[in-house]
Design brief:
- The protein has 234 residues and is α/β, with parallel strands linked by helices.
- It has one domain.
- The protein contains 8 helices and 5 strands; from the N terminus they run βααβααβααββαα.
- Strands 3-2-4-1-5 form a 5-stranded parallel β-sheet, with helices on both faces.
- Helix 3 crosses helix 4, helix 5 packs antiparallel against helix 6 (129-161) and helix 7 (194-203) crosses helix 8.
- The radius of gyration is 18 Å and the shape is globular.
């Protein structure tokens, strides 16, 4: 039996690189500064809960799979270190796990990740209304197919690199769905319900109209994780 700890993530602004300012400006414009700041606070508290969970977990020898990770070895370590220094909570945690004996694994295909990022850059940088509509339509046409291709590649990477009796951790955006693509001999432990994390993000633009549900999801997002991990022997 193989084991995979599944962490559905919400990316912080530090994860978005050059897109961060455009995303923040759009968030404030659409939601208002107060709601946007509460969202940023909720995401920080979410990462606090995830970090606390792994602080009490033996990660020695575990394989680390990271959303968007295009390399391992020295190049992968440099990506992790630079992203952590830039303030990414996700990569700060990965850096600590690697120092405690975890092993970074190349997770994604460069061409697929670049194609999606190029589409996002074109969408966020569009200024005229006509350009925004055009880029939005183009992005929506390729988004679903790209996500499926990435999920297929990620699941294949895990299956090929995670040996019998080994354990791994995957940090991946909540809109991904690789669980159904993993073979049956991989035990998947979801420390936060990916569907609820996804619902929180989907509901964010409508939080004023569906405040009760949004507040409940926020409370779930920031709650501590009470799910001890036990390794299964070969």
């Amino acid at each position: 039996m193989r084991t995979l700890i599944y962490v559905p993530v919400i990316h912080t602004s530090a994860d978005l690189g050059s897109l961060a300012k455009d995303v923040a400006d759009r968030g404030i414009l659409d939601l208002g500064e107060d709601v946007w700041e509460r969202h940023i606070s909720a995401v920080e508290r979410f990462w606090n809960a995830v970090s606390n969970y792994f602080d009490s977990t033996d990660v020695s020898g575990m394989k680390i799979y990271q959303d968007g990770m295009l390399a391992d070895g020295e190049v992968g370590q440099r990506i992790v270190d630079e992203s952590a220094k830039a303030g990414s909570r996700n990569y700060e945690l990965v850096a600590r796990l690697l120092k405690r004996g975890a092993v970074l694994v190349k997770t994604e295909d460069f061409k697929l990740v670049k194609q999606e990022r190029d589409s996002l850059v074109a969408l966020t940088q569009a200024r005229l209304l006509g350009q925004k509509i055009t880029e939005y339509i183009k992005y929506m046409l390729v988004k679903g197919g790209l996500l499926r291709k990435r999920d297929k590649f990620i699941a294949k990477s895990i299956d090929e690199s995670l040996g019998q009796g080994e354990a791994g951790i995957i940090f991946i955006g909540a809109y991904h769905n690789i669980k159904k693509r993993l073979p049956g001999n991989i035990r998947c432990i979801e420390i936060k319900d990916a569907q609820k994390v996804k619902e929180y993000q989907m509901l964010l633009p409508f939080c004023h109209k569906r405040k009760k549900q949004f507040d409940e999801l926020t409370d779930y997002l920031v709650s501590e994780i009470d799910q001890p991990f036990y390794r299964i022997k070969k």
